[in-house]
Amino acid sequence: MTDYFKRYGSSISFPDNGQSWVILSDIEKRIKEKIEKIGKPLKDWDISIYRGILTGCNAAFIIDKNKRDELVKKSPNSAEIIRPILRGRDIKRYGYEFADLYLLFIPWHFPLHLDATITGASKDAEKLFKKEYPAVYSHLFQYKNMLSTRNTAETGIRYEWYALQRWGSNYRDDFSKQKIVWKRVGSILRFCYDNEKHMVLDSTCFATGNHLKYLLAVLNSDVGCYLLQDAPKTGTGDLLISVQAIEPLQIPNIPTKCEQELITLVDTLLSSKNITIITEIENEINKIIFALYNFDQTEIQQIKHIIHKNSKKS
After folding, report:
1. How far is the C-alpha of 278 from the C-alpha of 95, rounded, in Å?
2. What is the mean pLDDT of residues 222-226?
3. CB under 8 Å to 313, separation ≥6 — which residues?
4. Which residues, in sequence order, are CB contacts of 102 under 8 Å at separation 6+?
């Protein structure tokens, strides 16, 4: 046994400042040290990260194009509160597949939602909603029983039965900005770029701000997969990529010229349907990202090995 430890053992040092510690191989320690030396936590970038909309009853609030057109035909102003929506299943790598679905975007106390004096369910707001948006009100009224019982501690108390359960009151305007969107729970990591003002459901998270296409490239890269390998997991083993999981990721600052090169590559990916071209570009992106972290070939192979091993588990 002594000979075994002499041959295969390695020494480790423990932090004396109260920080957490983990046992790593020599190569994993080198990778970790480079990431921490070069990277800057995503929460310190000029971005904001949020969770999507929680309806509490998707059957009532999410409609297809035919229903959208029907509501707008009955009451043209219905279009003001109908927004295109992306769900977790619509998110792909870099892009998305719009399923032609729409969200009835009904804030608490709508249409008196800008009145800060309203603190609970408002009968006045409901009367005005029924009067000004009759088609949408009539549609939601069919689901009143379901909507009224979705969250009995709040529905009809803090907000009206016809309102969304969580509507992003502090960041509602950010849905209309360019953003990165990702599925919050899943076995496969996918981050997409949206510049079409889609709303997103709570099965996703999203980020707005600067350097988005560069950050998108990192998150979709092999390094991005490696950085997220220790994200929390569900009971079934799926990754839970919450706001809290994404904020600590260490992303290196990048020279303007190099960032522009990545943006060009990402733009090509977003417009291409050719699998061969997509694969070639993703390989080129991986090379650039590896170089940003100063990884050598041994470290790159270790990262790819870990990614491959984790993908076989999922």
Report:
1. 12
2. 95
3. 237
4. 62, 63, 64, 65, 67, 68, 82, 83, 84, 85
